[in-house]
Design brief:
This protein has 159 residues and is mainly alpha-helical. It is built from 6 helices and 2 strands; from the N terminus they run H-H-E-E-H-H-H-H. Strands 1-2 form a two-stranded antiparallel ribbon. Strand 1 and strand 2 form a beta hairpin. Helix 2 packs antiparallel against helix 4 and helix 3 runs antiparallel to helix 4. The longest helix is centred in the middle third of the chain and has 38 residues. The N and C termini lie far apart (56 Å). 16% of the residues are buried.
Length: 159
């Protein structure tokens, strides 16, 4: 069997499957604006990748197996087994992971917005100095891009 006695392979397969879930989830909520999309994907990623300790009873009386597993899995197993201690240990870690993921989504949005602003023509102060007094800030850039000049949208051509 591929996963017999191989925890690194099990973690690797969990990581690959969670990345597939995140990518398909990101593409599934493509209709959302970028900020809520990144925060939502960050919350889901934090919930998927946060680890929590667990312990399972073995067949021998008094013996247990302890280890680390994804917090969402530990919590799901705890709910199924009606083990309140396991749920109580995994729930705060799951919430912390989701909060960290949400914050990282917000940071990613800020970085992407800053990169987009830099590509548009520098910081906000530089753009304000460059335009004429009394003209709207965005109207000139929209007109330039609408005409197809300097990186604007190009219409398809049929040959």
């Amino acid at each position: 069997m591929l996963f017999s006695d191989s925890l690194p392979q099990l973690w690797l397969s969990y990581g690959v499957l969670s990345l597939i879930v995140l990518v398909t989830g990101y593409l599934g909520v493509r209709w959302l604006p970028l900020l809520p999309r990144l925060i939502l994907v960050g919350v889901v990623a934090g919930g998927l990748w946060m680890v929590a300790p667990f312990s399972l009873p073995l067949l021998q009386p008094g013996e247990t197996y302890s280890g680390l597993a994804p917090a969402i899995v530990v919590m799901a197993v705890g709910v199924i087994q009606h083990d309140g201690g396991q749920v109580a240990g995994a729930m705060p870690l799951l919430l912390v992971g989701a909060a960290i993921g949400g914050v990282l989504g917000l940071v990613a949005w800020r970085l992407l917005r800053r990169r987009y602003d830099d590509a548009d023509g520098g910081s906000g102060q530089d753009r304000k100095k460059g335009r004429q007094a009394g003209s709207p800030a965005r109207a000139t850039s929209k007109r330039v891009h609408a005409r197809g000049k300097s990186g604007g949208r190009r219409e398809p051509m049929v040959n």
